[in-house]
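Morning, I've got a small favour to ask if you have a moment. You're getting the sequence in one-letter code plus the fold written as tokens. Thanks so much in advance, here it is:

===
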Amino acid sequence: MGTIDTGKIEEALDALPEDVGQVILTLGERTDAFYAIVYLLERSDRGWDVLLRDIKATVGALGFVLPFQKREGDKKTPTGVYPVEFAFGYEREVKTKMEYIEMTEKDVWVDDVTSRDYNRWVKIEETDGRSFELMRRMDGKYKYGLVIGYNRNPVIPGMGSAIFIHVWDGEEVPTEGCIALSEEDILKILSLLDPRKKPVVVIGTVETLGYLSLNGGTDGI
């Protein structure tokens, strides 16, 4: 389906480890905007092929932030390069090669910065966290989703939690810091991701991608 040849984007992609074979590129026009465009790229002997292009997305209400400046509850999406850990949702099964976990009423993601379980998925009866997010919500936001490996290894209290790709409320509705897409587009991405290709999410603007490439672009891996 063609290749991306924009200079700074190519530099950022070329800085990735050779074993990374798939990239969910989330590209914002400005650091203070909550609109983004998503591409699904796959490495080939020609470079980076575009499997999906021009997918509309929303990010944090206050735009993007460098990872070391991210704070819990700041409504900003961290830039950087992060592994795609696993898929989740409300249904028993979905069409994907990724590890998939069905979320139940007992599944929560802890955002209590004082808890030993901060930024972790746990069962509600097993955590000491006093603040957490239900993973099986009353709405459809987490009907399908992917866990982005931000602040996960190691977990640093207060640096932000529960950064996902999930279903949006609409293209005019920002997130709390996640990346949100239409249900249709998330299902397309899920069907094409392959854990053997070690997929990552690359997040930023063209300018911050250039910065990431100069610094190796792999802080999140």
User: Anything to note?
Assistant: The chain has three helices and 14 strands.
